[in-house]
């Protein structure tokens, strides 16, 4: 077990978390939007005496319960496991500040799960009025879970000046609500609520597409068209909410996006711009398909089409979430902690006194610390082990050796001098350095920086020499 | 007054329409589209793949014309592609879209071929549709092969070199044909010039008439019913209008295809390697594009099993036999009249498909 530095080959720890989180976002936002869709659809059906709608809604609520109650909950817990492993320092900071917030969310979540089950199991068993009230209670509590988690997510991008003023003093909890209602809180809440409403439509299209349009043409037409209309608020208001959100993100984030847009022609545009491009394009396609294929031809709208819309929604959601993560660069908690878990306030100290001796998981005082092995190794192996520990501590949260964002290929064709130049530029971290927009500083004493250079040299060496004795000895358990 | 003003543009539009209708017979075409129907059943999804192939072909034509503005065949080939990729605004996007859509087009054509085969859409009276489709598939693959060399980076150079081993292994005339195509004993600037002429003049001149013929046949015979649908009585069969219902869905599919293309082209831009150096040794694990990998692997394995010319001859014999079987498929279907499933053809199709997939994966495994 190599905890706490989670060394995931090929995809990196970020994508383990990303893969789980994207799936969770698709399901959890559906839990919020679909929670409102169900009682409103039931209300309409009862007011208009549409018993055929009620039959469809019963099936939809079963699908809803299984998807959100099982897959939503399981992936939510999986996110906890993965963030704890991927970035223990940032997770620790969140827990120390927001444990009260999570307690509130847990209460809402408990009510949410309970009401979802009661709603499904009491169709035709309690009065329609009471059944509807349970549906509304579900809708309210599921939205309130979003209200809470949104505060924590947005805190990571914009913790706000008040919290940053007390950060590290031990009295952060005294400004809990300032951190919670941070600058991007409200635009993000509106954006996520709109996404939830549109995902309600997207998932509803999946279940309603299964109705036979030839034998139940009128039913399918009415319910497919009504579901499509749930996309309208999102497409009208999303651009406004997004503009507000962008206005509130830090200037550095906006610059990263502007830089991306201005360099599209030259093909060097930033990853955040590419992700936004995919999001906008997939969203526009959803609108076109929803209108031309579903709304105009509801009878022949089949499951394959509904799944295509779902796939596009998945692409749009994944790209948007990725863009949001990118905007935070080079921090994991804005202006406080860099993406590799090093606090901004610790940089000088680590440069002066050394990174490896001070970082909690590697310190020679820590039992089983791989750093303890350094002393007993020959000089060359000692350097490579130190270099690898530097890589794992400061690079591996975003880069892999030979997979996603592989340093092996990013440094391909570079000689030792060239690698040293890059590493030194990141270490010096000058005000005008272009890397400051997305890379954290490299910290450590000169011998540690040099050890990293030597280790990186082994990653881009072609052909790789896995049997080289120095590297073999330097590898720590993983 | 207001009413007459708003009526005026409509009247003018109607007059223009009437003028064009008299000369082109537009009403007849619209009526035809309105009355035309498309079968609707659980396999309808496979009807879209011909259209998707056509969409990628259209992208190829437009992006190809844009590339033609800056591309210079011959000694300057690499430098011109370098300029397109790095210096010219949006050049990277056009090139990337061209390369990705070429690959997606080959994939779509293969899916179309196998869906037609398994749905038995080659049966009477659609035999010419099947044959013209086979010709289009062959031309598509040659399009891909000839286009791959044009950037003349190291990967293109060596992949073309090994790719040309496939025609070179044709018994007796293989070397002659390969030398004519290559313009000598080795891949050089002359080869680029020849491949360029093939890619932008000869192949389009051959492709477009066959494509027109193929589309004419699709329009003439309509969409074929799979045997399981044919077995149903008329009262149980379902149809949707071609226009606007099927047309809207077809356009929806094109939109999804455009999305996939745009995602690939913008997130994974097509790379340009180092300039080809004929004197350098080939990069490790060099192989042709994925759609030739199967043939490449078969030749490689046969060469191992049967050293000398015998391996190559056997490989070519196998390819020829597969091609002959594909051509003769409409005649191998004994159940065409009764509407029963033609099991023989299903087994042949499965054998071909699994063989292609297996040898392609095997090829990549050994790289």
List the helices and strands and how they pair.
The complex is a heterodimer of chains A (478) and B (367).
Chain A: H1 12-47, H2 51-86, H3 88-121, H4 128-157, H5 161-166, H6 176-180, H7 185-208, H8 217-228, H9 232-248, H10 251-262, H11 271-295, H12 303-327, E1 331-333, E2 337-338, H13 347-353, H14 379-394, H15 407-410, H16 416-428, H17 446-460, H18 469-474
Antiparallel strand pairs in A: 1-2
Chain B: H1 2-24, H2 26-35, E1 37-39, H3 48-70, H4 77-87, H5 91-118, H6 127-149, H7 154-163, H8 165-168, H9 174-182, H10 189-221, H11 227-230, E2 239-241, H12 242-267, H13 290-305, H14 309-328, H15 343-366
Antiparallel strand pairs in B: 1-2
Helix pairs in contact in B: 3-5, 3-12, 4-5, 5-6, 5-12, 6-7, 6-10, 13-14, 13-15
CATH homologous superfamily descriptor of the domain at 43-284 in chain B? Cytochrome Bc1 Complex, Chain C
User: What fold name goes in the CATH topology slot of the domain at 43-284 in chain B?
Assistant: Cytochrome Bc1 Complex, Chain C
**Structural class computed from helices and strand pairing of chain B:** mainly alpha
Structural class of chain A: mainly alpha
Summed up, the helix count of chain A is: 18
CATH C-level class of the domain at 43-284 in chain B: Mainly Alpha
CATH-derived architecture of the domain at 43-284 in chain B: Up-down Bundle
């Amino acid at each position: 077990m190599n905890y706490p530095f989670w060394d995931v080959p090929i995809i990196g720890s970020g994508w383990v978390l990303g893969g789980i989180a994207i799936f969770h976002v698709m399901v959890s936002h559906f839990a919020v939007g679909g929670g409102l869709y169900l009682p409103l659809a039931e209300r309409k059906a009862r007011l208009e005496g549409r018993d055929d709608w009620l039959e469809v809604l019963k099936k939809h609520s079963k699908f809803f319960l299984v998807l959100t109650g099982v897959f939503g909950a399981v992936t939510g817990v999986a996110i906890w496991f993965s963030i704890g492993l991927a970035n223990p320092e940032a997770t620790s900071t969140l827990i120390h500040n927001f444990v009260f917030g999570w307690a509130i969310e847990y209460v809402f979540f408990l009510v949410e799960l309970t009401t979802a089950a009661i709603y499904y199991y009491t169709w035709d068993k309690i009065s329609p009025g009471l059944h509807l009230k349970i549906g509304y209670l579900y809708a309210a509590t599921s939205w309130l879970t979003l209200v809470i988690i949104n505060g924590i997510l947005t805190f990571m991008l914009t913790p706000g000046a008040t919290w940053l003023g007390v950060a590290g003093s031990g009295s952060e909890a005294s400004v809990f609500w300032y951190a919670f209602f941070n600058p991007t809180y409200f635009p993000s809440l509106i954006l996520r609520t709109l996404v939830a409403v549109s995902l309600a439509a997207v998932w509803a299209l999946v279940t309603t597409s299964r109705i036979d349009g030839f034998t139940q043409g009128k039913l399918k037409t009415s319910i497919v068209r009504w579901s499509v209309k749930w996309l309208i608020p999102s497409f009208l208001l999303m651009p406004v909410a997004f503009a507000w959100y962008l206005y509130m993100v830090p200037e550095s984030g906006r610059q990263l996006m502007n830089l991306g847009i201005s360099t599209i022609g030259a093909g060097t545009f930033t990853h955040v711009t590419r992700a936004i491009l995919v999001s906008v394009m997939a969203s526009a396609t959803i609108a076109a398909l929803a209108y031309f294929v579903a709304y105009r031809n509801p009878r022949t709208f089949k499951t394959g089409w509904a799944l295509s819309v779902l796939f596009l929604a998945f692409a749009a959601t994944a790209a948007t979430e990725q863009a949001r993560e990118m905007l935070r660069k080079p921090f994991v908690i804005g202006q406080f902690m860099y993406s590799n878990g090093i606090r901004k306030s610790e940089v000088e100290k680590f440069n002066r006194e050394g990174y490896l001796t001070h970082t909690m998981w590697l310190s020679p005082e820590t039992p089983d610390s791989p750093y303890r092995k350094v002393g007993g190794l020959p000089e060359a192996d000692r350097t490579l082990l130190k270099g690898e520990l530097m890589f794992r501590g400061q690079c591996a949260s975003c880069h892999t050796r030979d997979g996603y964002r592989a340093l092996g290929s990013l440094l391909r064709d570079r000689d030792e001098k060239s690698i040293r130049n890059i590493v030194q530029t990141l270490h010096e971290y000058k005000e005008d350095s272009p890397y400051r927009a997305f890379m954290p500083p490299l910290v450590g004493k000169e011998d540690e920086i040099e050890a990293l250079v030597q280790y990186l040299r082994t990653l881009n060496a072609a052909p790789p020499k896995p049997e080289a004795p120095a590297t073999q000895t330097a590898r720590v358990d993983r | 007054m207001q009413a007459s003003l708003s009526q005026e543009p409509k009247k003018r539009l109607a007059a223009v329409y009437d003028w064009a209708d008299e000369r082109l017979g537009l009403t007849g075409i619209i009526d035809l589209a309105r009355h035309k129907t498309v079968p609707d059943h659980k396999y309808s999804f496979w009807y879209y793949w011909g259209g998707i192939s056509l969409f990628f072909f259209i992208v190829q034509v437009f992006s190809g014309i844009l590339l033609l503005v800056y591309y210079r065949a011959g000694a300057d080939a690499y430098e011109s592609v370098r300029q397109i990729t790095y210096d010219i605004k949006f050049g990277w996007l056009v090139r990337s879209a061209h390369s990705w859509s070429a690959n997606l087009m080959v994939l779509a054509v293969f899916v179309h071929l196998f869906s037609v085969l398994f749905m038995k859409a080659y049966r009477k009276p659609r035999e010419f549709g099947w044959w013209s489709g086979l010709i289009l598939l062959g031309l598509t693959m040659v399009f891909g092969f000839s286009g791959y060399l044009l950037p003349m980076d190291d990967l293109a150079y060596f992949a073309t070199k090994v790719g040309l081993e496939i025609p070179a292994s044709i018994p007796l005339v293989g070397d002659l044909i390969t030398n004519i195509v290559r313009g000598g004993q080795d891949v050089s600037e002359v080869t680029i010039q020849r491949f360029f002429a093939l890619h932008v003049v000869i192949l389009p001149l051959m492709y477009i008439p066959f494509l027109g013929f193929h589309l004419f046949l699709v329009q003439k015979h309509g969409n074929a019913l799979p045997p399981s649908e044919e077995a149903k009585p008329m009262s149980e069969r379902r149809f949707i209008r071609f226009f606007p219902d099927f047309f809207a869905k077809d356009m929806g599919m094109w939109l999804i295809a455009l999305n996939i293309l745009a995602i690939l082209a913008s997130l994974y831009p097509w790379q340009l390697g180092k300039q080809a150096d004929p004197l350098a040794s080939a990069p490790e694990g060099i192989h042709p594009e994925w759609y030739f990998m199967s043939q490449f692997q078969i030749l490689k394995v046969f060469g191992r099993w049967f050293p000398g010319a015998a391996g190559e001859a056997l490989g070519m014999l196998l390819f020829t036999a597969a091609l002959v079987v594909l051509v003769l498929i409409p005649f191998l279907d004994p159940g065409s009249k009764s509407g029963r499933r033609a099991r023989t053809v299903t087994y042949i199709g499965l054998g071909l498909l699994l063989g292609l997939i297996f040898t392609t994966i095997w090829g990549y495994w050994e790289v």
